[in-house]
């Protein structure tokens, strides 16, 4: 059963989402060459606490960090460690904010430093942003999860990249991860996928790779990387299904 939230509950989630947005902005603003991943995690945790919340990810059994941070070919669930960030790296930061009984979830991938003109990594990141924007447009009553999945897949493939099939977006609310699962590709007919209804809240994730979407799990048991070592990207927002369309809870 996919949870349906009241307007009051969604308002609480929106408040959490706005705070999580501030956490993400504060964290990404600190990204620079030489900074370690654990130092970046500490920035995020401090900001979450300042805003009166708890790190959602630290509520996951056996996960002890406020964020998941991945570099370059890291896809998801990267443990923040003492690895220093270098100019030209792609840095993906994923974080959750818990307060008043509800979670929100968001992620962004950025490039460290700037280059003249548009490089391969810039175009790669633009594809992920576009896929998320187009998927969010599909969030409305009587559409289906398959409309989001199909849109993500088509947008990513059109840009020349590959959606990851082993990992998905998900519902979010009283639980950090709940139904429905939202694949980045269409795995069955749209009409067979879950129906969207007013009051549902979704953590829509665009998870994709520059090369083959085959993944491996690192020795730490958490970090998932591309097998071929090529770039991976992650973009995520928490979005409620409103009466007339999407309500993006993690944006202004």
Tell me what you see in this structure.
The protein has 252 residues and is α+β, with helices and mostly antiparallel strands. It has one domain (7-248): Creatinase/methionine aminopeptidase superfamily (Creatine Amidinohydrolase). It is built from 4 helices and 13 strands. Strand 12 and strand 13 form a beta hairpin. Helix 3 runs antiparallel to helix 4 (145-158). The chain starts with 6 loop residues before the first helix and ends with a strand.
Question: Which tags fit this structure?
Answer:
single chain; 4-stranded antiparallel β-sheet; Creatine Amidinohydrolase; 28% strand; 6-stranded antiparallel β-sheet
Compact summary:
The protein is an alpha+beta fold.
Q: Number of helical segments? A: 4
| CATH architecture descriptor name | Alpha-Beta Complex
Largest beta-sheet characterization: 6 strands, antiparallel
In percent, how much strand structure appears in the residues? 25-35%
Low-pLDDT stretches: none
CATH fold title: Creatine Amidinohydrolase
Topology:
Elements: H1 7-28, H2 37-50, E1 54-55, E2 67-71, E3 74-76, E4 90-99, E5 102-111, H3 120-137, H4 145-158, E6 162-163, E7 168-171, E8 178-183, E9 201-209, E10 215-217, E11 224-226, E12 232-241, E13 246-248
Antiparallel strand pairs: 1-4, 2-4, 3-11, 4-5, 6-9, 7-8, 7-9, 9-12, 10-11, 12-13
């Amino acid at each position: 059963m996919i949870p349906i939230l009241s307007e009051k509950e969604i308002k609480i989630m929106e408040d959490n989402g706005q705070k999580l947005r501030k956490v993400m902005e504060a964290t990404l603003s600190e990204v620079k060459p030489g900074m370690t991943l654990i130092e970046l995690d500490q920035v995020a945790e401090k900001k979450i606490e300042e805003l009166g919340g708890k790190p959602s990810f630290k509520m996951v059994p056996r996960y002890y960090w406020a964020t998941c941070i991945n570099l370059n070919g890291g896809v998801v669930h990267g443990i923040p460690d003492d690895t220093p960030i270098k100019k030209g790296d792609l840095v993906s930061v994923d974080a959750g904010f818990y307060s008043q009984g509800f979670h929100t979830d968001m992620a962004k991938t950025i490039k460290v430093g700037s280059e003249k003109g548009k490089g391969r990594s810039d175009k790669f990141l633009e594809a992920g942003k576009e896929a998320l924007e187009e998927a969010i447009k599909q969030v409305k009553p009587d559409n289906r999860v398959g409309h989001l999945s199909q849109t993500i897949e088509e947008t990513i493939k059109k840009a020349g990249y590959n959606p990851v099939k082993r990992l998905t977006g998900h519902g979010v609310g009283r639980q950090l991860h709940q139904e429905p699962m939202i694949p980045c590709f269409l795995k069955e007919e749209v009409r067979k996928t879950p129906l969207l209804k007013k009051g549902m809240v979704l953590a829509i994730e665009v998870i994709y790779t520059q090369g083959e979407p085959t993944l491996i799990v690192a020795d730490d048991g958490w970090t998932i990387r591309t097998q071929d070592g090529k770039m991976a990207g992650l973009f995520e927002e928490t979005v409620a299904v409103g009466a007339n369309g999407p309500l993006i809870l993690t944006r202004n």
